[in-house]
Amino acid sequence: MASSGLELLWVSLPQLGKGAAQTLSISILSIAISTVGGVLYGVLRTLNSKWLNAILRVYLELFRAIPVLVWLYLLFFGLPIFFGLSLPGFWCAVLVLSLWGASEVGEVVRGALHSLPRGQREAGLSIGLNGPQLYGYVLLPQALKRMTPPTLNVYTRIIKTSSLAVLIGVVDVIKVGQQIIERTYESVLIYGALFLFFFFICYPLSAASRVLERRWTHA
Amino acid sequence: MSALIEFKGFNKFFGEQQVLNGIDLQVNTGEVIVILGPSGCGKSTLLRCLNGLEVAHSGSLNFAGRELLDKGTDWREVRQQIGMVFQSYHLFPHMKVLDNLLLGPLKVQKRDRREARDQAEALLARVGLSDKRDAFPRQLSGGQQQRIAIVRSLCMNPQVMLFDEVTAALDPEMVKEVLEVIQGLAREGMTLLIVTHEMAFARAVADRIVFMDGGRIIEQNPPEIFFTNPQTARAQQFLEKFSYVAALPQTTQIKELEPL
Amino acid sequence: MTLDYAFILSTLPAFLKAVGVTLQVGFIAIGTSLLVALLNATILVFRTPYLQRCVGLYVELARNTPLLIQLFFVYFALPALGIKISGFAAAIITMTFLGGAYLTEVLRAGVDAVPLAQLESGRSIGLSHGQLLRYVILPQAGILSLPSLFANFIFLLKETTVVSAVAVPEILYTTKSYIALYYKTYEMLAVLTLICVLLFLPLSLLLSRLERRLQHGQFGS
């Protein structure tokens, strides 16, 4: 029984590989955009601008109040109606995951910047640094260590949440798995394999996050 | 000769509370001003208004002929001329000492690296910390960090230096090494504004004592007059808090001074 | 763009029911997850060697895999082994599996934050394991964990939308069904958005306030 299972997996590898490529593409793109967006959000929120803060807060709360899957549906079914454009599932997923991810990374960055002693900002300003220099040379480098472990956790969540793309029709690794199951009825094997697929991608990230947190927290 | 720095009718509020009330103060080039006063009297705030870390609400602040309370003031430029050293030194912990010193000169003033480095090294030697150039701040004592913080500001070649209770966070045995650096700067004729609680130091280094209370300047006098014969009741009450001797006019006071 | 308000009104009863299902699934999941987490926390506190590692493994497996996969596994794969499960049951089981892991981590952090000295002084006055847990550890760990616990409760409530994938009639599933039946996409999505905002936004704001309150009362960390 086991050998036929492994055989099946082996034979399906190209298909699964294509699906995995979709899943990973969505994840990696979203992670990249979220990181850039998140740093931007975090920096912008630590500037003392009331209206900027308000706008960003609304953005944050919108993505917190509305679950990601709902956002996926809103974009996938709503965009055609609202703007007359129909975005393929893949790009809907990337867009939603990026926006949501950016808000999550952003809050991490904001927290990290906020936790730095206020004097660092003042000392930097006192030697004449301007905004970008202050953040680039003084604040962000110090925040980096505090930001990284939680950000890795956000990355893990982005990868896990990318699995929802199958529900808006993306032919990702789950969809491919389901197609195989339709043919072969090997649901335990395939879902088990998918389970392990995500586990072996996410676990290293979680573990790394923990290791780094322990190593870098000596306050 | 007009003053290098001039506050006129300067006011500042924190919300409802007025922290600076009608401040009129002139500082001439080369003067050493020590600002004394009880906690919360606004002396730190006054200093911080000079380099733009606090924003004033009304009045006038003139520096080298320019009105700093104008909307168009480039504070970056001002901060290169008016350096500040903080109570908690706030060196950049992720950089070595030398990098701390070179950040401003290289990135803000865009100076030549070799020239900036030479200056930094010379100043480090002056405060006796040449061998610490590659150390990280956390490897240094408080007194050492504070001396380096002073050097960091000096590397920008400012006209004026502000010192905000720079020895308050130090262990007592390290206070003198920092104050001696400041004394050295005073001797060289640099314009200094110092907020401190170190009375003996204030007496030794100041050209003028500015006593503040409740956001106002109560008394301004040379140290010999201020410490031996305070003109106002509040100044007397304040000085009493630092004296362990009965409040009698002391003619032998001069002997207790630190030699200049 | 004008909305068909009459239609929206007609669907309200169904949506109300859907909200009920969402809350039902959510609260049951919270409850069962909490039980699982308490069990795990007890194991962790008393540092039983073998069981401790089992808990660790469970937490890692549950936290590093998507809810959707776990759900599909329970709903589609288990029948192949002979166990037939309804969508609702699969949802509860899966969310307990996931929620239990998250809450275990929260409680573990809370317990870790209680100083070892407390355990020792409790033992030295003769408290049994149960009493130690009940009177010394859990109260202290509990207060510290409150914001995290609440945050995870909200998370579980929001994750109920995922179980729409196995036809549990919560808010997202209901929305999809009505769109498929009546093609009033715009109206249904608007209702869904409104429900989400009304349901989850207050919770999120409450959490922020809770975090702020507790920060002021806490010294250290």
From TrEMBL, chain C:
The keyword Ribonucleoprotein does not apply. Gene3D superfamilies: MetI-like. This is ABC transmembrane type-1 domain-containing protein. It is found in: Cell inner membrane; Cell membrane. It comes from Pseudomonas fluorescens. The keyword Cell inner membrane does not apply. Belongs to the binding-protein-dependent transport system permease family. HisMQ subfamily. One of its GO terms (molecular function) is transmembrane transporter activity. One of its GO terms (biological process) is amino acid transport. Residues 19-207 form the ABC transmembrane type-1 domain. Keywords: Amino-acid transport, Cell membrane, Membrane, Transmembrane, Transmembrane helix, Transport. One of its GO terms (cellular component) is ATP-binding cassette (ABC) transporter complex. It is a multi-pass membrane protein. Pfam families: BPD_transp_1. The chain crosses the membrane at residues 25-46, 67-83, 132-155, 188-207.
